[in-house]
Amino acid sequence: MTILTTTGDFKGQCRGITANESNTCVGVNSTDLQVFLNSGKMSKRFCNFSVEEFACASLSALTAQDLVEIMKCDLSSNSSGSISAWNLLFCKTSGILNAALNLLTTATINPNNPAVSVILDSIQAISPDLFSTNTLNNLTELQLWFNVRLRPFLPAVSTNFLSILATKDLQCNSYQYILQILSEVQPQMTLSKQESVYTQFIKIYLSRKDTAATSPKCYDSNNPELNSTAWFAEYIGSFITFLTVVDLQSFGSQQDLQLFTVNPQNLLLLNQYKVDVTIVIYYIQLVYQQDINFSPLGLPSLGQCFAPGRVFTQLTSQESLTVLGNVNRVCTDIDPQIAAALASNFGKNIDAKVISALGNESTSLSISQIKSLKPSDLVDSLNILSNVIGWRKGQAKAIVLSLLTSGFVQINSSASLLNLGSLISGVPSTVFSSISGSDLVTVSRNPSVLFYILSAPQIVQLTFVIKIIYLNTNSLQIIENVPDNLATEIPGVYLLQFPNDISTVIRLNRKKWKPQQVGSPVKNPYVLKFVCNF
Description:
This protein has 534 residues and is mostly helical. 54% of the residues lie in helices and 0% in strands. The chain starts with 10 loop residues before the first helix and ends with a helix.
């Protein structure tokens, strides 16, 4: 058997591997492969044979390009080769391995190919000197290996490779360079591989504090090479998506970490990548411990949701419009203090554009701000205002009165009531007198309208019910027309005559009653016995 001469990078480790060849090659038949190799007719046949068959053959005629073709094969898990087979193959071809890796630089290798991570582990296994601290801290060598020879395999990097790398005594600039390369190939990684880079390399490295140092790894305010506060961007980068609060707290004290939080590069990082919300909340807390007046405009989009409300008062009206557009888009639930601060920034310069930006946060407008609105702006904003949830009665009333007095809006039908939506709670009781009872019966069957009526003052609810009663004063018709939850407003005088049958009892018991209604002089004791919903 012919074994190619090993280079200095691989010689020591390969002695033991080639000496153990007989164990690796048990049951492997390379006869057919050897025929093709000896005849020089391997063209387009490299992927027809297993890695074991190559490893156990005589490879004296193999070229660097041939080895490239073997490594590029998208093999199944059954033929992708064991670590021992790749070790033996690379030891036999160590004289051309570096040349083959150089040729692979521009090749595209499927990172999901099970052989890819094994190849990477094998290269690491047979070349311990190559991954020595001295080599890894030589930026020229580091660039040659990680940006050229190993780069095609890094999207499939294994946890074993990463954990070994993390234990090396890497200088900060060497670590940064490796992180940069891993970040560049990150889009080609599976999610689990990306997470492994963080947990098995980044987290382990950053958790290893420098001797006698109390500050975070690779930070020294007195060292010009290590005093950058862009620490998150430079030492975690795009893998920040896997960072947890517990991990962050383990990297350094709160006092140290807060120094980094206001750095623009770190803030940009949080804005570019989807970071866990617990990290965002903690990060924003640190920002305002570092600078209590930090402008919310400098925060990542999601971070604005968790900033203290007081810091938004420093914004101009135009800046407030911008921030409103963002918080309404990304915040699940806006802090009322933030909404109030933003609304106050407009003073009495409120128009349809501001209402559109405020959206559901229009509830933060003061009564005086609402009264300062031009009726035409209210009309233009009615489709927004009518869908706002949480109006206080005074706000809804101020909007409705402004609409009514302007003459732009009339409330005299079921359609006009429906158009008001959530503003119905602000409609004066006298307005319902001009709407027919049949229209009120119609709108009361709309669950949303009924909800808003129930949130209106009691005098409005009573007027609403009385108008429905006047449509038909028959007791049975009254309980048919008046919504169940408004039955409390039916005067007792209309609850005197009911037939003695079970269907009536069932209908009565669906409604909500006040004790004094049930205790009124109902003439039917059968009904009195069963009516108990109060």
